[in-house]
Amino acid sequence: MNLLLAATLLVCQMKVNTQLLLEQTVEVGPEAVVVGEVEGYKLKVKKTAKDVFELDVFDYSAASRSYASSTLRYKKDVLSWSLWTREVLVEASCRLK
């Protein structure tokens, strides 16, 4: 069995201005999985290597995409992304379930 292709369960969250608006458990493999959409932002996550995961956040209003990646080996490990402007604070994170 190829460990790269083995799916992993992650718990992902999105907050806008510190309010939790999305919390979803997703099964993640090498193909991007849509976690959800919140207030004009679309969150996807995928596994890029054995323990390495990548968040992909698309901002519809700016037609832009940004990424964050991290190694998740233990339940305390967190993959996080944030955007802070004068108008909004958006945070996305995932951890092992």
Summarize the SSE layout with pairings.
Blueprint: E1 8-16, E2 19-28, E3 33-38, E4 41-47, E5 52-59, E6 64-71, E7 78-84, E8 89-96
Antiparallel strand pairs: 1-2, 1-8, 3-4, 4-5, 5-6, 7-8
Summarize the structure.
The chain has 97 residues and is mainly β.
Mean pLDDT: 92
Low-confidence stretches at least 5 residues in length (pLDDT < 50)?
none
Characterize the biggest β-sheet: 4 strands, antiparallel
Can you give the helix content as a percent range? under 10%
**Span between N and C termini?**
21 Å
Structural class: mainly beta
Number of helices: 0
| Shape category | globular
Write up this protein.
- With 97 residues, this protein is mainly beta.
- The chain contains no helices and eight strands.
- Strands 2-1-8-7 form a four-stranded antiparallel sheet, with no helix packed on it. Strands 3-4-5-6 form a four-stranded antiparallel sheet, with no helix packed on it.
- Strand 1 and strand 2 form a beta hairpin.
- The two termini are 21 Å apart.
